[in-house]
Write a structure and sequence with these properties.
Elements lengths: L12 H26 L5 H24 L5 H18 L8 H13 L2 H22 L4 H83 L6 H28 L6 H12 L2 E5 L7 H21 L4 E9 L2 E9 L9 H4 L6 H10 L4 E7 L2 E9 L18
Parallel strand pairs: 1-2
Antiparallel strand pairs: 2-3, 3-5, 4-5
Length: 402
């Protein structure tokens, strides 16, 4: 006999204990009823035969309760056959015992296809026939046995079909949900590729053209000896910013296409550009592209703020892997600043930088802290290594100073 459904080991333990308790309670009530019926029998031989059949049916019932969630179908089937046959024979002495083959048939038809279930029910009917023929009882008990077994068989088959139908509906719903997820993912990838193309075609090309114009202007400046040194320095700084912007645009395109360099390598390059120290802690782990990009933006914003508000201050970065989170800390020593803040840069941006990176990190399930520490300023971002499990709402207010 082959079971149709998975083993009931998958049933929650609390539900399994409750079902077993109710089943044993039913057995107790049935035994009580059978004993009451048999006690009215005058023949001691019939009482002994009924007692032996009751013990056999009860032991089969107990075995079924104990093994139905763990044993093989053959063991479970054997216990149900014993319940049905012994209970059917017992009905010749106490008609209420017809519940034994009825329950056994219901359990079998709920669990297995029709043939094995019919075999269990047939064992019950055969037991009723033999005991009635031997005992010389009224054959109306046989009709009662047939009715009990048939009703239980039909009920079990209908229940099994209902469960199978419910499982089929669930599988179809899961398949539909998976299809929706894959469709959404495909649309998201298509949109990201579209953004990457637009960013490359518009911003990257514009910066590249501006870089060429600046190179041409630099040639003109070099041809004029009387050009002041300040103009030359500003021109060089502008060229550097354009080159950095072009590099950032290309990096954003790679990020959108999930083709980015390791975060550590990018932070090393960024630290060199800003004259900052960089170190790592913990065992490096692979990061999702959006997580790596968010941490890079945090470092970029923090070092830019150092350049704006504490020009020349010593800065350091640390990327630490700590269990299930990755943490980026950027410190700068205000006391080491070489003069006033860069007013031109300080007026740029509008104070939305820290808010933007806080919102970006919040979408990944992380958080950003920024504030003064002993002798300086610290920006710290912490993000789960596994990336976003759900999309968290952006902060409703600005949790960080601008």
């Amino acid at each position: 006999m082959t079971a149709v459904f998975p083993s009931s080991n998958e049933v929650p333990p609390r539900f399994g204990r409750l079902a077993n308790g109710l089943t044993l309670l039913g057995l107790g009530l049935l035994v009580y009823g059978v004993v009451g019926g048999v006690s009215r029998t005058d023949s001691n031989g019939e009482k002994l035969a009924a007692l032996l059949l009751l013990v056999a049916a009860s032991l089969g019932w107990l075995a079924w309760v104990l093994v139905r969630n763990s044993a093989t179908d053959a063991v479970v089937g054997t216990s149900l056959v014993v319940v049905a046959a012994a209970g059917g024979a017992l009905a010749a002495f106490s008609p209420i015992a017809l519940l034994f083959p009825g329950i056994a048939t219901l359990a079998a038809s709920s669990r297995w296809p029709m043939a094995p279930a019919a075999a269990v029910g047939g064992a019950g009917v055969l037991g009723v026939l033999l005991a009635t023929a031997i005992n010389g009882n009224n054959f109306s008990v046989v009709w009662g046995g047939l009715a009990a077994v048939f009703t239980a068989f039909v009920t079990g088959v209908m229940r099994r079909q209902a469960v199978a139908q419910a499982e089929q509906v669930t599988r179809l719903e899961l398949a539909s949900e998976r299809l929706d997820v894959e469709r959404t993912r495909a649309e998201l990838l298509a949109e990201r590729n579209h953004l990457a193309r637009e960013l490359h075609d518009v911003l990257a090309h514009t910066l590249a053209a501006l870089s060429l114009q600046l190179e041409a202007f630099a040639t003109v400046v070099d041809a004029e000896p009387e050009t002041s040194q300040l103009v030359r320095e500003q021109l060089e700084r502008t060229q550097q910013l354009v080159r950095e912007g072009l590099g950032e645009a290309r990096g954003a395109v790679r990020a959108l296409r999930d083709d980015v360099a390791p975060l550590e390598d990018r932070l090393v390059t960024l630290a060199e550009q800003h004259g900052a120290a960089f170190g790592t802690a913990g065992a490096p782990r692979p990061l999702a592209p959006e997580t790596a990009l968010a941490l890079y933006r945090v470092a970029q914003e923090a070092l830019t703020n150092v350049m704006k508000h504490a020009t020349g201050a010593a800065a350091s970065m640390e990327l630490a892997y700590d269990g299930d989170v990755v943490r980026l800390t950027v410190d700068n020593d205000v006391a080491s600043a070489n003069g006033a803040a860069n007013e031109a840069l300080g007026r740029s941006g509008g104070g939305f930088g820290l808010r933007g990176i806080a919102e970006r990190v919040a979408l990944l399930g992380g958080e950003v802290e920024a504030g003064p520490v002993a002798g300086g300023w610290r920006v710290r971002a912490e993000v789960p290594v596994a990336g976003p499990a759900t999309t968290a709402p952006a902060p409703a207010h600005d949790p960080l100073p601008s």
